[in-house]
Amino acid sequence: MSVKAFPAIKKIKTFIIQGVGSGGDYHNVEGGHWLVNSKISTPMSGYEQYRKSRTSWGINVLGSFCVEIEATDGTKGFATGFGGPPACWLVQQHFSRFLIGADPRDTNHLFEQMYRASMFYGRKGLPVAVISVIDLALWDLLGKIRNEPVYKLIGGATRERLDFYCTGPEPTAAKAMGFSAAKVPLPYSPGEGTEGMRKNIEFLTKHRKDVGPDYPLRVDCYMSLNVTYTIELVSKTKHLDIDWWEECLSPDDTDGFEKICQAHPDVKFTTGEHEYSRYGFRKLIEGRNLAIIQPDVMWIGGMTELLKVSAMAAAYDIPVVPHASGPYSYHFVVSQTNSPFQEYLSNSPDGKSVLPVFGNLFSNEPIPYKGYLDVAELDKPGFGLELNPQAPLIDADTLLNPAPQKALTLNNDDGNTAKANSH
User: Fold this and answer.
1) In sequence order, which residues have a C-beta less than 8 Å from that of residue 168 and are 6 or more positions away?
2) Which cofactors go with this protein (predicted)?
3) Catalytic one of 27, 323, 331, 423
């Protein structure tokens, strides 16, 4: 008995999003939003002119983009991420050649081809983030063709409800909304000297007092510290019982995590949202210097690569708690025994209420209520997200003008002319 033919990939479209506050670039928001205009320590905080706003040094310059993949049966998969016009260019001018005509079930094969083909300019950063969004659109397509939620395609449910902690500026609001824990951004960097250190301690002391001694309080350092500063800050706040210290160091300073763990073996350190692919996570995991890893499924290489990283971490009993990413992460976490809970990144301007992670891009994005989400709410085909008819999408075809130069022609040894492959 022959297997019924499965729909192939027929067409790929990309979009950018007009305006701010919608789509997969978390930081492309209105001015005054806590994510960009509150005092947050960053790798640029050493420069006084770039301390007041994260948009001043360009955290939102790429913006959101979306990928739509259509199969031969008319079914469409859709996903969003960050990357803006450069991301659309990469999809249309490079990665599409590996996708058109392919079987969308071959996610491992397609990821590997796109990753290896972009290795000479990629490996990390934007190219892998673009591959991530393509991969998520593939999983959305597969779920819709099969009429199953993505979490069922990647192993099924491991629980009936998904619990959340909240990242935002007001831990008391997170506690009042029912979240299991709160995480705050550290406000001052090493470049702000001893006064900045003092203000960091005062900031954390205030929040610990506000939420009480038993509520888990976490700190996000956003790649802004160094080994010496981290060791000193953790020492001076031991009495505050910080639940974990996140992304203290540059993503490239893997040896630094060993140093801070040696200095504070009883403290939990976490990182990973700005790391890419299984190769990037290998040393982090093998070093056993992290209590938790925090990949972002919209950046790491998509669901396909996140599953590989999660399996690697499980072998070391290291939990995987993804960075933000809304429903893309929700489907992953509920399917994994070593992912105990999920982050909710507060999307409201003041950080005191629960709003959809992707703004108005989707009409039915599930959001946590009283700090949790019933897994049954994810029981829709694919990622279960329905595109808002009023979503401010701009077809990227209008951006690629003038069209790129056609492929060069090459002379064969026999003198005949052959066109280079530019499919």
Assistant:
1) 34, 174, 182, 183, 184, 345, 346, 351, 352
2) Mg(2+)
3) 323
Tokens of 29: 């928001």
Give the pLDDT confidence score for residue 414 in this predicted structure: 52
The arithmetic mean of pLDDT across residues 157-179, rounded, is 98
Query: Cα 165 from chain centroid?
Result: 16
Q: Give the position of tokens 């802004």.
A: 224
> How sure is the predictor about 99, in pLDDT bands with cuts at 50, 70 and 90?
very high
Beta bridge partners of 271: 293
Q: How far apart are CA 357 and CA 352, in angstroms?
A: 14
pLDDT tens digit sequence for 285-327: 999 999 999 999 999 999 999 999 999 999 999 999 999 999 9
- pLDDT at position 410 is 65
Smallest CA-to-CA distance from 279 within 248, 300, 258, 250 is with: 300
pTM: 0.94
Binning pLDDT at 50, 70 and 90, where does residue 379 land? Answer: very high
- Please report the pLDDT score of residue 412 as a whole number: 55
* Domains present along the chain, CATH in parentheses: 9-147+389-395 (3.30.390.10), 152-378 (3.20.20.120)
CA distances from 120 to 115, 124, 259 (A): 10, 11, 32
Q: DSSP 3-state assignment of 72?
A: coil
Average pLDDT over residues 362-377: 98
Tokens 């960053």: give the residue: 42
Q: Which residues contact 256 (CB under 8 A, 6 or more apart)?
A: 226, 227, 249, 250
| Closest residue by Cα to residue 312 from 289, 342, 283, 273 | 283
Distance CA 251, CA 257 (A): 10
Which residue has better confidence, 141 or 411? 141
Q: Which helix (H) or strand (E) holds 224?
A: none
94 is catalytic: no
